[in-house]
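Per reviewer request, we include the raw input and output of the structure prediction for the construct analysed in the revised manuscript.
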Amino acid sequence: MISLNNIMLMRGSQILLRHVSLVIHKGQRTGIIGRNGCGKTSLFRALSGDIALEEGEIEMPNGLRRSSMAQETPGSSRSALDFVLDAHLDFRQLEEAISQAEENGNNLVLAELFGKLEEIDGYDIKHRAERLLSGLGFAVDEFEKPVSNFSGGWRVRLNLAAALMCPSDLLMLDEPTNHLDLEATVWLEQWLQSYQGTILLISHDRTFLDSVINNVISFDNGGLDSYKGNYSSYEKQRAEKMALQQALYVKQQRRKSEIQDFVRRFSAKATKAKQAQSRLKELHRMEDIAPAHVDSPFRFQFPELDEPSSYLVQMDDLSIGFDKPLVDKIELSIRSESRFGLLGFNGSGKSTLLKILSGQMDPLGGDIIRSKKLKIGYFAQHQVDELDQQATPIQLIQKEEGYATEQQIRDYLGGFDFRGTRVSETIKNFSGGEKARLALAKVAWQKPNLLLLDEPTNHLDLEMCHALTVALQQYQGAMVVVSHDRHLLVNTVDEFYSIHKGVFAEFKGDLKDYEKWLSTQTFSEIEESAETAEAEPMQKLDKKEKRQQAANRREKLAPLSKMERRLEKEIEKIQAKLLKIESSLADESMYLEEKKNTLNALIQEQGSLKSQLVEQEDAWLEIQEEIASFE
């Protein structure tokens, strides 16, 4: 149990929390929510002991093991794999002690150390680290690359892997999905669901929160409010609480009316039953929780389009990539009503396709035909980094096309929560979240009829993510979106396209189907699977085709079944050898001085066999996954 006893927390002269008392129970999985700048990260730092409280105290159980993500990773010559392994301090200390004992020929100490190594599953640690790296999107050939070779976003992933590697009773993660793609986000979600300790999680991804947490702590007016349940449950509870405030009733009803209009419009044009069913379910849920967000400081719209154009972009036999194609034979038409989501593993070509559509890159081959009326609004992370740091928000908008008075610009920026003197401050002093909001404001001001959005919710808080979702629902133009935020995708996108192993194709299921498909895939070097990325439903086949398909399946399964039997025999042999060694080690006479060489040899052989056993069992599990993919 963790107790916050009448604490006061400040940042500079700003009071973040005043006279707050709270209890976090063992095993609780808590989402920490609140607007950017409210103090979520500062609370984490206080819990970690990195900053002091002004008043009160935080009580934690003796011996509580804590793990949290580092915010920065300096360049290092350590390999990615070693960097992650270094987070397991007990393992590294035992490794050093074993090396010292072997050098000194101290067999009794060595036997004790190998016992401790087994207690912490030390023989499997390297494989656990490799699985963490693979799950977070690192290719096998990147495991041995030095940390200094990775970009900032990939170093954040390394910090996350290290935090997960570190043995802990309390795991604190601050925006862990910010630099993850959808595929790695789903993997992390599944990993956290099986974590046995207490979790404190800061995230702007509501679907991720819903899947992981069972409790919410919300920053509210210098205090902390606790709610039981996941994020969706919190929204409903807050909506009920706020519905009692008569002053907000009109705003609540207006937002409900807007969602009902959108539901009617969507229902009228929905053509894909599976996605339509998923979308309508989410929209009706948004209607129920709309009152929870009526006091949000964010409310903006994409301007109405001057002259809609039915046809915008046509791609024919398009090939994209750098030195060699990542994807080829892309065929896609983008019309004014198109709302596409792009799915695919990191590095598959999603962001590259958006860059080519925006005109920032040239394709390797094929044709792109653009309408003369096409006007693109492109948002990507590098757009945020390229904002003029010396400009003010007002100056940033004034540089764009179209005349507007300063008051009109002020009113517009107010919807992005830039008010008063903030609109006249230089951008260099803004936080990452504020810069992201400004970049979105700039894109929306341009009146695009095609939006290209590459991870638009990174660095935004939950309220701004909600406001962006609402704005995109009301947007009149076309969209192509890459995002790990499933709530945003489900509520704004009509169709999905996937890029998998160089193939661009329509994905005919919904995001739940995509998550199911992901669960059949590995994140490292993937053998050819019987399933395709499109996950198309099995079409009716005649008897001849069914016989041919069954024959093909048996032909592909035969080598897998043979490998399965071979691995099972190897595992049995290793287990028999280990049993024999353990029997020998149980003999007290083995520890006499004259048998020290035999003892040392047995211990060495035992360690080697345990490593071999882990490798063979991992290989067997991979074969099982491949066999299951044919069923």
